[in-house]
TrEMBL record:
InterPro entries: ABC_transp_permease. The complex is composed of two ATP-binding proteins (LsrA), two transmembrane proteins (LsrC and LsrD) and a solute-binding protein (LsrB). Coiled coil: none annotated. The lineage of its organism: Bacteria, Pseudomonadati, Pseudomonadota, Alphaproteobacteria, Hyphomicrobiales. It is a multi-pass membrane protein. Part of the ABC transporter complex LsrABCD involved in autoinducer 2 (AI-2) import. Probably responsible for the translocation of the substrate across the membrane. It comes from the Bacteria. It holds the Pfam family BPD_transp_2. Its main location: membrane. The keyword Oxidoreductase does not apply. It comes from Pelagibacterium luteolum. The chain crosses the membrane at residues 12-39, 51-75, 82-103, 123-146, 178-201, 233-253. This is Autoinducer 2 import system permease protein LsrD. GO terms for molecular function: transmembrane transporter activity.
Length: 282
């Protein structure tokens, strides 16, 4: 249960990221958005339990705007998603430092930390049920349903596979791509809320999460060129990546080794996927 609790934020983030990857893009802004959610929530709420719900609403509003802007820049200004979201990542990081002065002020109230920290005790069979795991199940099911049981998911796959053919078939390409970016950003907000619960307030709390989410999606079989990806497989990829990191921590290996391993996993997973795609094409 503790392992699943630690893995829940990355699993939710990766499940949102896979929408953008399947549509043929990347979202590098999610890590800085997580930081903005944690730092912004602490400064707005300032340890006031009554402020929790309106602060969370504001954060979802910010996430919606970030996703919308990313989608509009990619679709209408024709900026590659890698560059557009990289620019958004730098902008959000700068905004966080301007707002906080580099040292976050305020505290997150217990009502905010509830989602990432609290465990429901004395549960039959499993003894303990983290609220973060409940969040993962609920959000994961919603994202699974949208991707695999609705027209939205089918259109996202069609756009990632061949955007020109999808447009000729009547798919509203720009609207669907913008929706994918919005879903990714809203997932980052949920991740930020969970991380605020047990990781505390820091200006680098979201650092590196964008690449971990992409790695988890690739481990789950998503194609970086778009057209293929699964929400359950991506969540499984996130659990696998978290298990690898946990093992490295148990072995007492330093943080740089963890980064090297993550990079090698990403390269190997992409190379294997491209090899399989080439064989299938032949």
């Amino acid at each position: 249960m503790n392992f699943l609790k630690r893995a829940a934020p990355l699993a939710i983030l990766a499940a949102g990221q896979v929408y953008v990857i399947v549509s043929g893009g990347f979202d590098l802004s999610v890590g800085s958005l997580i930081t903005l959610v944690v730092v912004g929530s602490s400064m707005l709420s300032n340890n006031d339990p009554n402020a929790t719900w309106w602060v969370i609403s504001v954060m979802f509003g910010i996430g919606l705007c970030v996703g919308l802007i990313n989608g509009l820049v990619v679709c209408y200004l024709k900026v590659p998603s890698l560059i557009a979201t990289l620019g958004m990542m730098i902008t959000l990081n700068g905004f966080v430092f301007l707002w906080s002065g580099g040292a976050p002020r305020g505290y997150l109230p217990d009502t905010f930390r509830f989602f990432g920290r609290v465990n429901i005790m004395d549960v039959p069979l499993i003894r303990m049920l983290p609220v973060a795991l409940i969040m993962l199940v609920v959000v994961g099911f919603i994202l699974y349903w949208l991707m695999h049981r609705t027209n939205l998911g089918r259109m996202i796959h069609a756009i990632g596979d061949n955007p020109h053919a999808a447009q000729l078939a009547g798919v509203p390409v720009n609207r669907v791509r913008i929706t994918a970016f919005i879903i990714s950003s809203l997932s980052a907000v949920v991740t930020g809320i969970l991380l605020g619960g047990f990781a505390g307030v820091s200006t680098d709390v979201g650092t590196g999460y964008e690449l971990q989410a992409i790695t988890a999606a690739v481990l789950g079989g998503a194609m970086l060129l778009g057209g293929r990806g699964s929400v359950p497989a991506t969540i499984a990829g996130a659990l696998t990546l978290t298990a690898i990191f946990t093992l490295l921590n148990f072995l007492g290996l330093p943080q740089p080794v963890r980064q090297v391993v993550q990079g090698l996993i990403l390269i190997a997973a992409v190379a294997l996927a491209m090899y399989r795609r080439k064989r299938t094409g032949q």
